[in-house]
Amino acid sequence: METSRREFLIGGAALAGAAVVGSAIAPAVGHKGSIAEAAGPEPTYEIYALKYAGPLTSKLAMLLWMEGWDKDIERNYYIWAIKGGGETIVVDAGCGVTLAGQRKIKGFENPVEVLARLGADKNNVTKVIITHIHFDHVGGLEMFPEAFPKAQFYVQKKEYDFWMKNPISKKPPFAKLRDEIANKALEELDRTKRLHQLSGDVKLMPGIEILVAPGHTIGLQTVAVNTAKGTAIVASDCAHIHRSFVDDNPSCLITDMVAWLESFDKLRAKASSIDLIFPGHDVMMLNNYPKVAENVTRLA
Predict the structure, then answer these.
(1) Mean of the per-residue pLDDT values for the chain?
(2) Which of 48, 119, 171, 185 has the maximum number of C-beta atoms within 10 A of its C-beta?
(3) Homologous superfamily of 5-298 in CATH?
């Protein structure tokens, strides 16, 4: 009997490193206090993609599991901004300037400076959501705590504990994804009241919900946003390119394959349309949406 793609991926999860972590997706509140939900109609927000590096070229098989070994694909590096109600919520911090220089990342710009093109500054950035602790999503913590002094920071406790406390995270498959400067900054934030470690899904504020979506990492989180187009999701690296959500096929950068496929189901069920799920590195976010500033586009 022919095996379906989904059955094949689930059956091969052990080969992809699923033994490192569990696949549970359970709702709970953060351990540094609950996040209150306000009553009344939910406001709508706008979502922006901000490219801070790229394009970089790799084989398609890096971004789509076991497909396209002979095909090249470009990818960009992004952070996102959610605007509404007079405040700006930033999703991810990008890469730090130190590591970007060391790795000579093509087309790199300081994410703080890219955010300034959207009017995001020390006065209106109130929240920074870190989707996962990889260098290209958390590295900007080298600059962000000082650049955005009013901001509170949010990360999943499971993600924090793995990268900060688990020695497995320093083994070769994970070590290349670390940024020690940013991790130190995260630990310093944890000693203040500015870091909130969450445990599962959390209603952050009216119209914005954090959804845990592991697979790429042990505690990756995404952001569901009420927009004029419906519920949109800033998915970060729950998929590196949008095609993953269509084909049910993630990238090769896997911690837990079973959890990843479950996360796809969860986000598709939450979003008003699959076209309102925005992945981590797809060039279409820069090329296919209205440009509002240099390397900044409005997604919804």
Answers:
(1) 90
(2) 48
(3) Ribonuclease Z/Hydroxyacylglutathione hydrolase-like (3.60.15.10)
